[in-house]
Amino acid sequence: MSELAPGILRIPTRGDGENCFLVADEDGLTLVDVGWKSAPTAIRQAIESTGRTLADVRRIVITHAHPDHVRGLAEVAARSDAEVLIHELEASWLAAGRVPRSGRSGAFGRAVDRLPLLHWQPVAATRTVVDGARIGALRVIHTPGHSPGHIVLLHEPSKALLVGDAVFNRGGLSSGQDALAADPVVRDASYAFMPRDVTAVGFAHGAPLVGDAVTSLNAWLDR
Ligand SMILES: [Zn+2]
Ligand SMILES: [Zn+2]
Fold first, then answer.
1. Fewer Cβ within 10 Å of end Cβ, the chain: N or C?
2. Domain tally, the chain
3. pLDDT by residue (tens digit) across 23-52?
4. Which domain holds residue 168?
5. How far apart are the CA of 106 and the centre of ligand 1, in A?
6. DSSP the chain
7. The domain spanning residue 90 has which CATH number?
């Protein structure tokens, strides 16, 4: 666990490469993404190390309904009684417990979605959001393409950006595998919507960028 920016903790949920984020809001904690099925234990331990408990989590925001972000969701939601928020285009995926056929542009992506390991316990979203919505200190920016309802979240007090799977930072910046994305062309067009004047970048997959290093993301987005 480490501080991404004032008010935001990064919680690694599998090794040090897969992350969710915990935002301190005035009325409690906001969790951004969950992770695989083992993630709830890492999340609980991280929250308890700050002197709080899962019961302090008021909201769970899901950047998109892919299994590596939501397999642990039902457990955290049940233990915290938190609201569950997701973009309106993906509430039906969350409730179905798997990615639909139309959710992957490539045969490889559709094949892996048949594996039970990539299905999850269905969750009914408490609230759906759209572009521009505010969730505590976070502002929602709709960045479709990786999935139709993918969102990135700008923490307005610190100007830290949580990018979900819009960009990966594994062995360098990348947009991930096209076969696993719903629409790679739409995804690439969405990079225009991502803010450039940020102070830190938190990735669901990979190490964060802080300080001057954030300019490498801007250069990559504008390449
Ligand atoms: Zn994804
Ligand atoms: Zn992911």
1. C
2. 1
3. 999 999 999 999 999 999 999 999 999 999
4. 2-221
5. 14
6. -EEEETTEEEEEEETTTEEEEEEEETTEEEEE---STTHHHHHHHHHHHTT--GGGEEEEE-S---HHHHTTHHHHHHHH--EEEEEGGGHHHHHHTS--GGG-SSHHHHHHTTSGGG-------SEEE-TT-EETTEEEEE--SSSTT-EEEEETTTTEEE-TTSSEESSSEE---GGGSS-HHHHHHHGGGS-S--SEEE-SBB--EEGGGHHHHHHHHT-
7. 3.60.15.10
